[in-house]
């Protein structure tokens, strides 16, 4: 029983920790917003390298505070805590 509880705790922890580590942020919504900026820059530039990607990604990352994504997630899921909505949205974009 302890093993099952440990596995559940580990899965829940990874659900929240991985996006923040991948995004380089301690704010779940900011990590999601930075992930979305990287994806958008990659789609516009046609890849994840080169000067076009670099410029778009740099400008987008500078403005990615997480506030826009937090507001969006709060509006879409009003009964769910924002950080949970942002984590679920992050995993949904992969």
What would you say this structure looks like, in words?
With 94 residues, this protein is an all-alpha fold. It has one domain. The chain is 79% helix and 0% strand. The chain has 5 helices and no strands. The longest helix is centred in the first third of the chain and has 22 residues. The model has no long low-confidence stretch (mean pLDDT 90).
Please render the helix and strand layout as text.
Layout: H1 2-23, H2 28-45, H3 51-63, H4 67-76, H5 82-92
Q: Give a quick account of the main beta sheet: strands, pairing sense, barrel closure.
A: none
Show unreliable segments. Answer: none
Order of helices and strands: HHHHH
Query: What integer value in Å does the Rg equal?
Result: 15 Å
Shape: globular
Report strand %. Answer: under 5%
* Number of domain modules: 1
End-to-end C-alpha gap = 32 Å
Number of helices: 5
Mean pLDDT: 90
């Amino acid at each position: 029983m302890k093993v099952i509880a440990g596995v559940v705790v580990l899965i829940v922890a990874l659900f929240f920790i991985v996006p923040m580590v991948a995004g380089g942020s301690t704010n779940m919504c900011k990590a999601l917003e930075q992930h979305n900026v990287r994806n958008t820059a990659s789609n516009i530039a046609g890849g994840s390298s080169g000067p076009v990607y670099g410029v778009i990604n740099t400008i987008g990352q500078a403005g990615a505070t997480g506030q826009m994504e937090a507001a969006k997630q709060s509006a879409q899921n009003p009964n769910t805590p924002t950080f949970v909505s942002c984590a679920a949205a992050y995993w949904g974009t992969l």
